[in-house]
Design brief:
- The chain has 306 residues and is of the alpha/beta class.
- It has three domains: 104 residues, NadA-like (Rossmann fold); 96 residues, NadA-like (Rossmann fold), CATH 3.40.50; 76 residues, NadA-like (Rossmann fold), CATH 3.40.50.10800.
- It is 43% helix and 15% strand.
- It is built from 15 helices and twelve strands.
- The strands form three sheets. Strands 2-1-3-4 form a four-stranded parallel sheet, sandwiched between helices.
- Strand 5, helix 6 and strand 6 form a beta-alpha-beta unit.
- The longest helix has 16 residues.
- Bound molecules: 1,3-dihydroxyacetonephosphate and iron/sulfur cluster (SF4).
- Iron/sulfur cluster (SF4) binds next to helix 9.
- 1,3-dihydroxyacetonephosphate binds next to helix 3.
């Protein structure tokens, strides 16, 4: 089926099902185009929690749909591609976190939202790349803080807050591919263009950037900047809205390798099929959900970083 026909089918089905389509900023262009709401992990979690729809179609990866279900268990949460996972979320398990806690009673565990429901259930508070600094600042100075699973986000938070943190050794394989040599090459190719990167990038890349922001933060930062060209160090899906919202300005991906295969899985056909069959639905067992929800709700209460 042509994109135009698929899109009108999807719009009709969304209405019939009283469904809302949420899409992460890394999704394919045509998915972002048809979404009711596009956003970063924080915005999409907030939307899932407050939405009046009966059905949430989550175009993103598995942990995002799981978080939506944890926050809104009365809704049907669809993940059109059940195989869309996040390798970083799979790098730590609840058993490993429980084992770590044995030696550190009283530590505050800050868990990046890119994690499984089981891991969130063992955590004190979650964070996203949009509010990690404020989340860490909300914790008393005297507390020991442990961050899972992203070592790069943790090092960014330590640098921004001046706090002594320890962290799990996980990482995002997509952002990890961006190297200092890529940044040097991009600066040489686009002299004067500010370099904006995601905090999932390696610390040595973060240290070279002009701004370090979540995907939503990048939209507002670039919109306010007087620059006419930018080098963007995050997954290539972000370029769709950056270019659409800033006509006449140029956005260069910092490296061609910045593609997350999981974020690219969902197609318009998958979304249509999911709305027809109301599958695959993502759920979380109630005992896990009950424990995970407080960490997620605590995250949602913390404002975005400035
Ligand atoms: P944000 O959109 O919250 O910055 O998330 C980045 C990411 O890698 C999501 O998987
Ligand atoms: Fe996970 Fe990285 Fe892909 Fe985000 S971009 S879903 S963190 S692998």
């Amino acid at each position: 089926m042509e994109h135009v026909a698929l899109k009108s089918d999807i719009r009709r089905l969304l209405k019939e099902r009283n469904a809302v389509l949420l899409a992460h900023n890394y999704q394919r262009d045509e998915i972002q185009e048809i979404a009711d709401i596009t956003g970063d992990s924080l915005a999409l979690s907030q939307e899932a929690a407050r939405s009046k729809a009966d059905v949430i179609v989550f175009c993103g990866v598995h942990f995002m749909a799981e978080s939506a279900f944890i926050l809104a268990p009365q809704k049907t949460v669809l993940l059109p591609r059940i195989d869309a996972g996040c390798p970083m979320a799979d790098m730590v398990t609840a058993e490993q976190l429980r084992a770590w806690r044995v030696g550190h009673p009283g530590a505050v565990v800050v868990t990046y939202v890119n994690s499984s429901a089981d891991v969130k259930a063992e955590s004190d508070i979650c964070c996203t790349s949009g509010n990690v600094v404020n989340v860490v600042r909300s914790i008393p100075d005297s507390a020991e803080i442990f961050m899972v699973p992203d070592r790069n986000l943790a090092q960014y938070a330590a640098r921004m807050t001046g706090r002594r943190l320890s962290w799990w050794d996980g990482y995002c394989p997509t952002h990890e591919r961006l190297t200092p040599a890529d940044i040097q090459a991009a600066r040489a190719a686009h002299p004067g263009a500010p370099v904006v990167v995601h905090p999932e990038c390696r610390p040595e890349v973060v240290a070279m950037a002009d701004a370090v922001l979540s995907t939503a933060g990048m939209y507002s930062w670039c919109a306010k900047s007087p620059a006419s060209e930018f080098v963007i160090g995050t997954e290539m899906g972000i370029l769709y809205k950056l270019r659409r919202e800033n006509p006449g300005r140029k956005f260069h991906l910092a490296a061609r390798s910045l593609v997350c295969p999981n974020m690219k899985l969902t197609t318009l056909e998958d979304v249509r099929e999911s709305l027809v069959t109301l599958t695959p639905a993502v759920t979380v067992p109630e005992d896990i959900r009950e424990k995970a929800v407080s960490a997620l709700e605590a995250m949602i209460r913390i404002p975005r970083d400035a």
